[in-house]
Batch of 2 targets.
Target 1
Amino acid sequence: MISTREEVLAVVRRHLADTVEGIEGKEIDPSKSMKELGANSLDIVEVVSCSMRELKVKVPRAELNKLTNIDELVDLLHRSVQEKASAAS
Amino acid sequence: MPTFLKNKLEGKAVVITGGTDGIGRACGLLFARHGAHVYLTHRWGSADEDALRAEFRAVGGQEPVIVEADASLDDDTDALMQTIRKDHDALEAIISNVSFAHVSKSHEDLDKKSFLRSLGYSAWPFVGYLQSAHKTFGKYPRYAIGMSSRGPEYFLPGYDFVAASKTVMETFCRYLTADLLSEDIRINVVRANPVETRSLEATFGPDFAPFCKKYYGEGFFVAPEEVAASALGLCSGLMDGVKGQVLLLDRGFGFADNVVRLFSQREQHGLSVLTPQDRPVKENT
């Protein structure tokens, strides 16, 4: 079960690599935005929704709209994973 | 409310993809008001489900079943159909409303991956939902309606993939109708003028609606409720002879939506190119 921030980052990185044209095999800098990495609007939705699906969490769109880079997305998803885990325990 | 409609739809299952907002929500509310048991799908998990259920109660409808289902994923579609199967032996209608496609900035911004994904979200569900319904219930729904837009017939900036996806859906409407002529199903598409939704603003930006209203009039935009009413009409039983059609819902505005109409109103809008001094004096003959 995924629980650490590093694991969440790995999930997001994998979906970025699978989705965004031309970044497979390249180093992904999480301090950058997805747009800076070449993602279009469809890519961004794909990466976020695939990550949420794999992590089994839901994040309101309003929260996602505030994010400025990948690190912030990972933080938000990680927080959701932790909240879900503590609610279940 | 016509009693025959209530009698026709009472307790019957109706699926609406992208049903928690905009046109989908309007369809859901209208069908529920007429007695249908509505299943609303969404992808993001961002809908305020309590507020949505309260809206359904307010119109006197049965509360909807809200299902997170990615319309592009056949597994999600199959799971949705199984959920419906628990309470219903048949599906009355599928309204394929969800559309999600890459809005391009220029032709260089068009890529194959985004194109295929756009088709997966916006065109394939029209077919995938029917196939899954048939697999699950052993028959097709009585009605299938696809929500299209004006993109296939006229230019909208950055709309390449959306228009292409809608065109594919419209093509499926005609071909599926021909393929399934012996089945108890009526497949049609509603091609509506732009509707003021969050999706419209996200696609064309905040200037689009005010600009169109200024230079064309309020009537250019159709209301989600009008689109919903047309869907209900197609599922009412009164239009069962209508099959395989792409129906234009434009309040008659489409015919004159061109530069010549704008030319005819150029002075009203301050768009004249010539000044009064530039205009030739007409001679009396």
Target 2
Amino acid sequence: MRLALLADIHGNREALDACLAHAARQKIDQFIFLGDMVGYGADPLYIIDRVRDLQAKGAIVLMGNHDEAAGKGSLDNMNSYARHALEWTRIQLDEESRAYLQALPLYHVIDDALFVHADASSPRAWNYITNASDAERSMRGTDRRLTFCGHVHRPQLYHMTQQKPAVLFIPQNNTPIPLVGQRKWLAVQGAVGQPRDDNPDAAYSVFDTMKQEITYFRVAYDIETAAAKIHAAQLPQILAARLFIGR
Amino acid sequence: MAFDPKTLPQFKAVQENRRRALVREALEVGSTIDGFLIEEKIHSGGMATLWRVKHPDISVPIVMKVPMILDGDDAAIIVGFEMEMMILPRLSGPHVPKCFGVGDYARQPYLVMEHIEGESLLARIPDAPLSAEELTKIGARVATALVDLHRQNVIHLDIKPSNIMMKPNGEAVFIDFGLSRHLQLPDLLEEEFRVPMGTGPYISPEQVLRNRTDPRSDIFSLGVLLYHLATHVRPFGFPQAQSQLRKRLWRDPVPPRKLNPNLPLYLQEIILRCLEPNPDERYPTAAQLAFDFTHPDSVKLTERAYRLKRASLLTAWKKRFELLGVNEQPKQPQPAHLAPAPIIMVAVDLSDGMETLAETLREHVARVLTTLPDARLACVNILKLNRLTINYALDQEGRNIHVQRLVDLKKWARPFGLAQERITFHVLEHADPAAALIEYAQSNNVDQVIIGARANRALRRFLGSVSSQVVAEAPCTVTVVRLPAGGDDVTL
């Protein structure tokens, strides 16, 4: 099975469409949305529609902290831009969409792989994985050999054995990386809709369960249009500006 | 939905189960795993067992390699096998065994690969010192195999006689990628071990310093191997302790011609250049090394070739003192496939009427060379043979055309002012110029061909030009240099 992994779309229609168009050429069997469909971007309704469409055809959709916040209206622990964008997002959504977001599951398991938005050791705490010790905590928090998560908006790949601390590898794009051995692997996905690794291209990955290989992809998309919509919606300007520099 | 880690068994327990499973599932003759029928144990070493196996869908002879994992302390064996499971399935071509299957680590780790006919170079060690002819042949074949491996972004890092098979057709094949590095994949070994990984006599100085990212490490180890085959002596002995490995950073080996006076100067030059402790002073690429083995006459002989004794102890100790501050530093990998020291071949047409094109070609080559200070230039001219003429070698005035062409070619290239070791000249005699150029580019691992195109006239378009055939069939980048319209010398 070939799984497409999409995290942190954040209401960016142009980025999602570009990734789905790219994925259409990758013989995908199943889509897995690793949370944060909404927040920051100007197209939350379109994203929810598109994702639910794919869900009806078998896609797995998981909850992120922005989905939870937009669904419930609990905006604690959010910075001011995020809060502004979420308040705006919440107004755009109808009752049904809000209920949908609130009811999303926190994780999903396929064989020895765990899919989750953030730290697997405590998915609802929304901890960020930014270094090896964060990664180690997450990997020790699950018995699954492979974990796929998002939330940080920066592609990273960690691996560890039982006796040794976790180690970071920055994956190269378009190169299949085998997640082999008896070690554990944690594949942090870049963001579809708001990359923060100094590369403005939309990020997503494909995991081949037969070959046990993950390939990180970057896809160019129409940033100008996505940014113009953020301006038009009178969302904080920085949310548009950062799309151009991927930061 | 709450997530309770306590409901899930802990990592450690899972690992224990996995390990027990490995011990439980002992392979035996007659059993089948993933469709592979175990037929016979053919080798049992300290790290792995080799089985002859069969599969209904695979017609070539195959073997299954199974790591010896008995307890959790064999970390190096486990990680080495994990590396091999990552790298081998990604490799292709005639210089590596084809991979047919990888076993799931949780159940039974294994690798199924093509059985390589022939003998390893270990079998040749007792015959050392080998003849110059044979050393050159072995050097060329192993270097050529390294070119192919490095192009696939892999550094072997354990080049030694037992890891090189010589097939009956003469091709060298590398086996055992347990210490190898794939420059686009995580390096599990660098990250997990704090000691140099390699085989004592062959390990490169960079590996001693724990840098596993330099393709030139394989060139060093090949130098050790050739030195051994040339003299029956190991250049750096057989170090038993880690502390002894550092000696090769400052102490140069006894010049091989001192041990084997029959060794030609060019082979000592090549071997000692491979063994330079500083990788910058070695061959920059395996392709350039292979080039020297296949063109012994154009090897530039330096002081290395004539050396008859080692550096004085004082010099060596000075070097050692300078190295005191140098310590282990893992480095960022460089892409191995984009050769920083490419072999550039320029096809020069010296016929009458082609002077302007030859000049334009020279200007273009000069521009390319300024950006590539380590590039090596092969200037090639085709002496077209007419199948009907027997007396081709002499022109009407009785001059030797071949020699005259070489002289003209050297004159053409003189303005580059390149040092002797960076430029070679070749006049190829052939009835089909395009075929000769393509063959040359192929057999010499040329990275880029630069060729002039004659004017684009209708007749030529109809007959097909040499340059367009080279563009279509050469195994590398081809740059065609053309005169601007109206600039053609030949008037119709």
